[in-house]
Design a protein that fits this description.
Blueprint lengths: L1 H19 L12 H7 L6 E6 L12 H17 L1 E3 L22 H17 L4 E6 L4 H17 L2 E6 H4 L1 H8 L4 E2 L2 H10 L14 E3 L15 E3 L11 H28 L3
Parallel strand pairs: 1-2, 1-3, 3-4, 6-7
Antiparallel strand pairs: 5-7
Length: about 270
């Protein structure tokens, strides 16, 4: 009985300490300003910024590029002791901008806006600004350039991650084939988050087109909202078990890498 009570007391103390050192929410747009001041930067120095856009994604939601990085941030924020900045939902859409429901923000508008967002996060006390990017193309280049410039200007530490490219080995591990834009991997990731965003009944194989090899052809708008990285691979399979496995393994890899980079920054005294 005595041992049981001691264990119970230790558990209570541990829970109380954990609650004391964790905010009531990880989301910046839900936290109160006074609580924010109690945690940043004395207890929390890392922020996750999801970025995406609105564009067609086969039989999943137009906002998949926003849904994915936000869900990832929510899943890994506790492990990284990070807050989550509001998602930047509009981006540089590119060759699918003509599809219904898509939005295209020009680079001239996007570049200074993301710059001011990163400056604002730095001003609020974050040392590590991690951009979880859900959309590639020209947006990736702008994010990398602006993040690099501000890291040097402000003495902050920035990391930009395109999750689907970074986790391409996880795609091969789970599915035994490559994926694609709104293909096997991205559809599975969204299915794991919210199956109601996946409209299997609308799927047809001819909704997909393999991306061209360099120098062969180019089309604007791109003829399909499902773009395959390799011909004959990456068609969605709608397997819930694989989707759940993929979600967990991708997030574990991304979270582990972010922590590794932060540890190495600290070790180098940067």
């Amino acid at each position: 009985m005595k041992n049981y009570l001691s264990t119970l007391l230790l558990t209570f103390i541990s829970s109380a300490l954990l609650a004391q050192n964790s905010p009531s929410t990880r989301e910046m747009d839900r936290i109160n300003w006074m609580e924010f001041a109690e945690f940043v930067p004395t207890k929390i120095t890392t922020v996750l910024l999801p970025t995406g856009t609105l564009e067609p994604h086969g039989v999943i939601n137009n906002g998949a590029d926003n849904t994915a990085p936000f869900a990832m941030a929510m899943d890994i924020a506790d492990n990284l002791n990070a807050l989550i900045a509001p998602t930047l939902n509009y981006g540089i859409t590119g060759s699918m901008a003509a599809f219904p429901g898509a939005f295209q923000i020009t680079e001239e508008a996007y570049r200074p806006f993301i710059r001011d967002i990163l400056k604002g996060l730095s001003k609020n006390g974050f040392k590590n600004i991690i951009i979880l990017n859900g959309h590639g193309g020209g947006q990736t280049k702008v994010l990398q350039e602006v993040a690099g410039e501000l890291a040097n200007e402000l003495g902050i530490r920035t990391l930009v991650i395109n999750w689907w490219s970074f986790a391409s080995d996880v795609t091969m591990e789970v599915f035994k084939e490559d994926g694609g834009h709104a293909g096997l991997n991205e559809t599975a990731y969204i299915q794991a988050i919210d199956p109601t965003l996946v409209h299997k009944e609308r799927y047809r194989a001819d909704l997909a087109t393999a991306y061209p090899e360099a120098g062969t052809w180019s089309a604007t708008p791109f003829p399909s909202s499902i773009g395959l990285y390799k011909p004959g691979q990456g068609y969605p399979n709608f397997d819930q078990a694989q989707a759940d496995e993929y979600f967990q393994k991708v997030n574990a890899k991304v979270s582990g890498f972010i922590q590794e980079v932060i540890n190495k920054w600290d070790m180098a005294g940067l």
